[in-house]
Amino acid sequence: MAKVKIFSFIKHVDTSMIASARIARFIGGELGFPITVDDTIADEPLDLLIIVNGAYAFCKHLEALGKAIREADRVVWIQNDYTIIPPKHEGEAESPFRKAFVYRKESGFTPTAYWSTCHQWSALQGSTYVNWNCLTFDAAAADESNVKRRRKTAGGDLFYYGSYRHGSGRSSRKVYFDRYFTDPKVQVVISSPDKKFLEYQHRAPGKVTVVPKIDADFYDEIGKHGAGLYIEDRKSHDEFHSPANRFYEMLSAGLPIIFQPEAQSMLHRAGYPISSWMAGTKLEVQRALEKREAWGREQRECFGEKVHAERNALPKLLKNLYKKVKS
Q1: Cross-strand bridge partners of residue 114
Q2: Cα-Cα-Cα-Cα dihedral of 172, 178, 179, 184, to 10°?
Q3: Strand partners, 6
Q4: Which domains can be identified in the chain, with CATH numbers?
Q5: Model pTM greater than 0.85?
Q6: pLDDT at 223 (0 to 100)
Q7: CA–CA dist 94, 81 (Å, integer)
Q8: Average pLDDT of span 45-69
């Protein structure tokens, strides 16, 4: 029997809502292999080691993971976040974890396979594009009866939730935060623990409100707002990645989505045309909110069949990938 383990950089894999933990649970459940989060990953040489991307710089088990990588017959790297770059297979690596990938290449091992949401990595030898982000779609939450219940009491604000990516690099979103949150014509609610968003509340008191991260029932909480804002950073305009988790979460909640125009190209490539529901100026946002319920119905009708199909296809795709990698 094949010896296979899944390594997750997230400790609380049973309860965490972090995307990488959700992916690890899904893979473990579908393939029936254990999820390991500590040094026991190196207890024995493995036929297949599946690593689910995470903030590995903060992991305390990299030495053991490096040993497991060196000894495994095959390695698969699961990637759903383009900001977490897999270790290189060449160069002057220093840590045991990074050195293990260099060792595999120099020793002639089968190349690491990437099952990735990012085209850059999925295009490599033996790798495959997998839209892990559609795992966040919740068909029960998206049931029309639940959506109608939420929309009966929904407000009229523009809602954004997520991290604050700043700086001058291509992964910064600040230029778009400034566009939508500086002197808005509508009520804006931002849900985030990041205090950097408070600058917009200070600039427009009474118009912009920053609230803590969501702890209540997630879909009911986001579904009570007027419309959700979907934005990309500049890197995502040029490099193809799966639609963000927020896209599938807002669809699950039945929250009408206002799309940043720059997101049109890559979402269209993913099979989701958004040209009818874009707003790039404060006035356009105001007019979009006036049509929010119609937009929401149109989006559910337009995207519903495809998003259900994407989510339902994942188990079979995963099992086929496993068969391929073990052969």
Answers
A1: 77
A2: 150
A3: 35, 50
A4: 4-130 (3.40.50), 137-308 (3.40.50.2000)
A5: yes
A6: 96
A7: 24
A8: 92
